[in-house]
Amino acid sequence: MFCRDFSYQYPASVDVSVIVPCYNVERYVGECINSVLSQEAPCTFEVIAVNDGSKDNTLQILEHFAANDHRVSVISQDNRGFSGARNTGINNARGRALMFVDSDDVLLPQHIANLWSALAEGDADFISGRYRKLMANGKVLDSVEKQRLHGGPWARLYQRRIWDDIRFPEGFWFEDTVQAYCIDSRFRNRFVPDSGYCYRLNSGSITNTSKASYKSLDSYWIIEEMIEWCRRLGIELGQELYDQTLRQLGPLLLYRTSILNDEQRVALFVLASNLINETEEFRGLKTDLKGRWFDVESSLRDGDYSKWIASCRWAG
Predict the structure, then answer these.
(1) Among the four 61, 62, 160, 269, which has the fewest Cβ within 10 Å?
(2) Is the pLDDT of residue 316 over 60?
(3) CATH superfamily placement of domain 14-202
(4) How far apart are CA 316 and CA 311, in angstroms?
């Protein structure tokens, strides 16, 4: 899926659109939406809840919110996954800025205010905060990041125009990879110390289930897809994205695909090695990453599978 001519259904008429993709989350979605509607924010905002083919009572819960608060709108569609739900939200957004909130997570009261105030200063295209872990018993932990490391779209606030020519890639796991390749590479980011996003530890999340599924191979296929998107968007595949690709093809790839047997993992390594060596834009580049990343790089460049295993386990 690639198109340079995405369109919005509506012109911008509020400050922030909060996009919430929802699939079978009757247990959590009420708490999530309540936390958004309770925000103490100096800006106008709407909540776009996208019911992505839920089979439980998620839709009924969302419709109750919409009937009682004009800021909430509900869109129902056949199941298209996280990306498809987020993309529907983007297409229907009325906000001058966009925010994504997963439907089992919650926001602390000043989260939108803190990100909006930073974005309003005008020196960045998007704002990135940190996050806290939300335990199963409801306890919220202190921030787990000293600075923003997670590549997900949540705990960020984007100017609307960032999404003029991109959407989330559909049909893939690890669709958040679009952040590093197509957003970080061409828009100005500002980090703020806000840690008002509470990420629920969920045993059913892709992060926790990917290692038990062959769908985890998307950890490789999404990189090929993003490289092609960069070419079509005219994004330079230079040093920054070369190093990013090494990060993707190192310990992260090995960790995510632990379901593979030795023969399958060798085949995956061959694909990764070929990608590094056959991507024309990467020829002649050397990593700026330090430490054992030199060994990860040389293992891929030289097609040395044993060295890749050893260096990935050390670097990871």
Answers:
(1) 160
(2) no
(3) Spore Coat Polysaccharide Biosynthesis Protein SpsA; Chain A (3.90.550.10)
(4) 8
